[in-house]
Amino acid sequence: MPWNNLRTGLGALCLCACALPAAAAQGPDAPEAAPDPAAALYPSQFGCSGLPEVAQTPVIEGRDGVFYRVYADIRMHHPFSDKTIELLARLSRTLQDQGTTLVFLPIPTKSQAMPGRLPEFARHYGYKTDVSAAVYQDIVDRLRAAGVVTIHGQNAMLAAEAGAMPYFQADFHWSSEGARLAAVELAREIDRLPQAADLERSEFETRQTGTQVAFSGLRQLIQRNCLHQVPEPVTATWKTEKSTLDLGLGGEDDGDGDGGGLDLFGDDESRVQVAVVGTSFSDMALANFDGWISQYTGLDVVNYAITGGNQFGSILSYLTSEDFARDRPHVLVWENPIYNNLLQYGDQPLLELIAAAGGACARPLDTRRTGPDRIEARLDGTDLAPGDVIFADAGGEGPVSAEFHFAFDDGSARVQLLERGERLRHTGRFYMPVNAYPTDRLAAVSVTFDRPVPEGASLALCAN
């Protein structure tokens, strides 16, 4: 690695001198060089230098080759306000009213999952293991008190056997072992649900398929600042499959003449049993999170997680899709890192999820098509409440954005844009809350999509 790529921890050090033994660099009679203060404060097993000062992602090195991000992995505060709890509880109740139980999994930070490998100098950043655990516990307690079924992800990770790595050493994602531990805790919580006894269980078999090295941008960043190779994100890989008996491919006939196969045409039995939404933690195939859930619950799992979708990409794509509308799951598992702020973009995303999760968008508005990409409806005379939501349905998948134009009785207007990122599913369904406006003065709404939409495009009102 070129020496000019190295950075120092504290103060500037002579890179040329670092490249040679001290005696050769200074001569046999030269005075002994002063010890490097950075090396004393931030000892490195891999000759790493300046990691805490890396502008893109500051990192510190812990024990056993484990690295922690400063701003995400060892932070002490996580933005879970009372408003966040309230809206998550509303989402949970709305889903439950439609027959789906929300199970929320706040992924613990790496320091919460692997506190025993933190370096001693983590305290210089204000980190305290007991306080961090108390913060996580408080969030779980508040969610559960509000009626949200919540998985204690930190306890799951702390159950790892001695020497096991639930997270990768030089990356912030969990390994297949971390995903397995989370699934064990998740299965316990699902078994406590009132409807658990009514769910049809199957036998699943999980076998190891080898080991795999995951791609890690974080590791690449760390390696650029280290002399020796840092640990690669290697994990055992597993494959979970339904047993042949449950598939009806073997074994004795069960007496009803169907060879023991599942009834694929039953009503409640044919529903999706468990749907998973979330981030790259769930979307990472080598972690086998969905497979582990099936292994420990005996339930079929459909994985809708999206890498790079941030807090809402996956669940928003799923809840606004036809898949969800026509086949609501018994259980919806929503995984999200604890450090994600669910109110980062205000309350609109959660209010949109609540509207999409409900069955209350039953008041169609008298929609007129005013252009190939534009529809509108009058709102004067409509009994609007502050908690209502306008539902714009493009009539099919494809549109990436919807621009809502609200007109008021005094001639003024406001514009709001909803846009789906490139990684999200472009379902063509957009929900815009009206709680930011005086609803008694709203006269009309028009929606412009980013592309032409069919004649069936429509507007509807979702009641609070």
TrEMBL record:
InterPro entries: ALGX/ALGJ_SGNH-like. Pfam families: ALGX. This is AlgX/AlgJ SGNH hydrolase-like domain-containing protein. Keywords: Alginate biosynthesis, Periplasm, Signal, Transferase. Residues 1-24 form the signal peptide. Residues 59-337 form the AlgX/AlgJ SGNH hydrolase-like domain. Pathway: Glycan biosynthesis; alginate biosynthesis. It is found in: Periplasm. It comes from the Bacteria. It comes from Tropicimonas aquimaris.
